[in-house]
Amino acid sequence: MIFESFRLRHLLLRQWRNRPGRALATALSVAVAVGAVVATWVSADASRIGYRRLTEALDGTPSIDISARAGGRFDVGKLPKLADISGVRAVVPLFFRPTLLRVGEKRVREIAVGVDAQTLAETGLLKLTSGTACVGPDETVLGAALAEGLGKSVGDEVLFFARRGVRRLTVTGIADPASLRWFADGAGVVVDIQALEQMSNALGLVDRVRVALEPNASRPDVLEAAGQRLPETLVAEIPAGRASMAEDVLHSADLGLDFVTGLTVAMAWFIVGNAMLMNVTERRRSLSLVRVLGASAGQIRGFITIEAALLGTLGALVGAGLGLAAARPISAGISRALQAPFSEMVVEPLIVPLAVLMGTLVAIAAAWWPAREAAQIDPLEGLSQAPAPANNQVSWRLLGAAFALWAFAALMLLLVLAERVPPRAAVPAGIAMLLSFVALTPLILPLLARGCACLVPRRFALEGRLALEQILRQPVRTALTTGVLVVAVSNGIGLGHAIRDNVDDVLGWYARMMRADWFLTHAGMVATGQAHAQGSLEAEADLRELSGIARIEVIGIAMGKVAGGAGVIVARDMPDDAPLPLAPVGMEESAVRAALARGEAVAGTVLARRAGIKAGDDVSVEVFGRKTSVRVAALVVDYTSGGASLVMRRDTAKRLFGLESADVLLVTAAEGQADALRAALEKIADRRGMLLRSAVDVRKFIDGIVGGVVGSLWAILGLGFAVGSLGVANTVTMNVLEKKHTIGLLRAVGMTSRQVTAMVVLESLLLGASGAIIGLVSGLVTALFIQWASQPLLGHPIRASFRPSVVVANLLAAVVVTGLAAWLPARRAATIDLLEAVSAE
Amino acid sequence: MTDPILRAVHVEKTFAPPQHGGAGVQAVRSVDLEVQRGEFVALTGSSGSGKSTLLHMLGGITRPTAGSVWLEGVDLAALDDAKLAVLRRRRIGFVFQRYNLLPELSLEENVALPLVLDGVAGTAASAAARVALEKVGMAHRASHSPDALSGGEQQRGAIARALVAAPALVLADEPTGALDSVNSRLVVELLHRLVEEQGQTVVLVTHDPGIAAAAGRAIRMADGRIVSDIVRAESRVAAGSPTP
Description:
heterodimer, A: alpha+beta, Cathepsin D, subunit A, domain 1, 3 domains, six-stranded mixed β-barrel, 27 helices, B: alpha/beta, Rossmann fold, six-stranded mixed sheet, 10 strands, 35% helix, globular
C-alpha cells in the first residue's frame, strides 16, 4: 500500500512547493521536539558528569573496594583478574600500618600506606607536587601537609619505625593532598607496598584492594561484575565515606534528570502530534477529492505516512544539530554552576542517530491518528463548500486511558515504595501519571477555557468569544497544544518543589549537625586508625584553653563494618544544653538522648535500609579490629556518607572501640566573640595541621554545591519552557494558516487587523492559562510523587512544602511564553491578504 | 434491450440524526433506476429533492442505507473500500459544480491524476492527459495552474479528467452551476458530443430546464423519489443550449 502511495509523490511535492510554510512548520515541529530531546539528554549527561566531577573533587576518583569478608588482611594472590572489567581504570592493592616517623627530635605518629606508587603516578592516580614516586625499599613519598609539618622536602631523609626495626627513608616526592586522599584514607606516608609488607612481616598480604573506575563507568555495574568473580572470602563494596553529601543530594536530582528527559520526549510527542494533526486537517478537502478520484483509504494513509517520515527525518536531522548546538552553552553553564571544569561536551555516539530515528518514528507514529482520520474522510466532504466539521466529540476512551495511566503510576509507586522494583521505575510511572493529566485535558479544557474567557476585559469581548470558539471547536487539537504547556508547567512546579524540599532537607540536616561558628577539620576526615587521634586531641585541648568560646563539640569519624557491610562510625559530643544534632525518625528526641546516654547508637536511614536494621536491633560493629554488638535505639536522618552511618556518643565510641579522635571540632563562640577567635584558631590549626573554616565559608561551600545542583536542573527546566514556547508558537502559526479562510472572512466583514491580533493572542493566552492550571495541579501531584519515589533512596520521608514562589514563577512563565509565542502568528494573521484568504481552499 | 450499464434497486439513503437527538434525514426513498449504455440522463428537481445524493450513490462516493447499485453488473455494495476506489478511478468519471481541480497540480497533472493513482507510468499518464485535454480543447493550457484558468476552462479541464481513464460512466453534478451562459453551453455541448461521438454514458444533475430538455432522458425527483422519467428520441437537436 505504501508503494501505491508513492504514486502520489508528485502531489506531495507540489503541496510542499505550493505551501512551503505548512511543510516547514511540520518539519520544524519535529526539529524542535528532537532538538529538545537531544539538548536535554546531553545537558542531563553534562549534569551527571558535573555531579561526578564534583564528587571526585571532594572524594577523589570513583572506586570500589575489595576486602576480606571476615575482616583483616587477605592474600592478594586470591584476587581474580579485575582489570578487564569494563569501566575499571586501575586495580590498586593497599597495605596500611601505623608507624612512627622521627625527624631530629620530632616524633610523629602516622599511618603509612604501602602501594605501587610508580604505577599509580603513571596512571595519574597519584599526583606529586614535586619529585618522583618512591620505588625502592628505602624511598618514601610524603603528603604535602606532613612534609610541611616535618619541614622535609625531596631528597631529605626520615627515620621510619616498623616492626622489623628502623629504616632510613629518602623522600623522593611530595604528594598532592587531594590525590593522596583518594587511596591513602588519611595516611601521610607512602612507601612501596612490597617494602612495607616486608617490614611488617606480611609479604603478599593486603588490607584492601581499591579499584579505580573510569570517569563515566557505572559503579553499580562494576560492583556487580567484580562481585561475580570474587571468591566467597572476599567482598566488593563501595568504600565507606566515599559517597559524599553532594552525591546524596543528587540521588533525587538524578531521578529528576531522568524524569525531565522522559518528559521532554513526551512533550516532543505532543508537539509533533499536533503539527501532524493540523498538517492533515488543513488538507482534508483536497484529500477527500483525491479519494473521490479513486485513491483508496490505504493510499491516503500511506501518503500521510510517507510525508511524516520524510518531514520527520528532515526535521530530526535539523533538530539533532540544533539540540547539540543548544546543549553546548547549557552544558557549559551547568558545569560552571557545579564548579566543575568544562572541557569538551560529552556526546554519546548513539545520541544523534537515535535522535534522528526517534524523530522519524515519532513523526510516523504521531501521523498515525491523522492518517487514519484522513483515510476515513468522507469523499462527500471534498465536494462540499462547507468548512470541515468541528470535532467536538471527546472520546470517553481518553478518560479510560487517563485512568489506566493513573492506575499504572499508582501501582508502580507502591512497588517502588515497597522496594519491589528499583527507584528508577518511578520515572516511567511519573511520566504515565503526568500523561494521565494530559489525557484528561480535552475533558477539562472547555470548562477551564470558558472560565478563563470570563476574565477577558470587556473591550476584547468579541475577540475573546471568537478565540474561545476556536478552542472549543477542536478540543483534541487544543488539548495537544495545551499538553505541551501542561508538561512544561508540571515539570517546573513538580521538580521545583521536589528539588527545593530535598535541598531544604539536606540543609536542615547540615544546620543541625554542623552548628558552630568555626570548624577545625583534618584534611583526611576519615580515620583508619588512631594515628592522628593524638594530634586532634591536642587540638581539642588547645581549644579548651581559649577564652571566648561558648561550646566545643567534637566529632570523630572512623571507617568500619556495621552488620557485615561498610559503614561510617560517627562519634560526637551531644551536650545536654544544646538540641540533639540528629533528627530521629518516629521517636522522641528525649528518648533518643536517653538511649544514647545508655551507650546505644542510632543508625542513618540508608544504612538501616541497606542492612535491614530496625530500631531496637542489636548489630555487630567492627572498628579498628574491635568487634562488638551495639543496640540501635532509633533511625535518624543523616547524610554523612550517604546516610550509611552509625552515630553514637563520643564516650561510647571510646569505650567500645577506642575511637577518640577529634576529626571535626565545632567551635561556637561566646556572644560577639566569633571574629575575635579567628587569630587564635588559625594558630591552633597551623600547629596541629588542621584546616580552619568559618561557618560562612562552610555555608558558602554548601550553598555552592546546592546552588549548582538546583541551577543545573532549573537550566534544563528552562529549556522545557523554551521548547514549550516554540511548540505553542508553531501550533498557533499552523492554527492561523489553517484558519486563513475564516480570518479572511472576519476581515472582510469588518474586523480590524488589531482585533485579529487580539483574537489570536487571546486564543493563545486562554490556552496558556488553561494549560497552566492543569499543569499546576499535575505539578503538585508530581512533586509528591517524586518525594514518595525518593523515599527508598533516602530512607526517610521528606517534608513537602507548598512554595508559592515556584508556583507563581511557573504560571507566569506559562502565560508570558504563550503570549509571546502568539505574537508573530498574530501579526501574520493581521496582515493576511484578504483576497487570497477569502479564496483559500 | 441490452443489459443496463447502471442499475439502482430500491436505493435509499438516510443521513444519520445529529448527535444530540433529532430524526435522521431520508434524502432518497426507494429509487429504482436503470441507465443504458450511451444514454444522456438529466436528473432534475428542486434543492433537497435527493438528486445529488442519488448521483453520489450511483458513483460509489457514498453507500446507500438500503438497496443496491450495480455498475456494469458489479454490485457496488459488495466491494470493499479499496476495490470501490479502483472502480471509481477506472470506470467512473466525475465532474463537479466547483471543478475541484487540485490547486497544487497543473491542469495536465490534474487530468492525469486518476491514471497516476492507478499506477500508470508518468509519461503514459501525461500522454493520455494531453489526449483528453485535446478532446475538450484545452491542450494549449495543459501546463497552467488551475488558478490561472477561467471557470469555463477549469470545468473543461475537469471533464478531461473525468474522461482520461475512458470510464464507462460520467457523472456530473451541476457542472454548469458556477458558469456563465456561454461557458455553460460549451460544457453541455462537450458532454453531448461525448455521448454522440464516443457512446459515453452521462448522468447529469442540473437545475437548468434547458439542459434537462436537451438530454435524451430527463428524470425529475421530488422528496427523494423519482416523480417522472421521460425519454426523448431527438432531444439533443431540439435544445442544446442551457437556459440563461
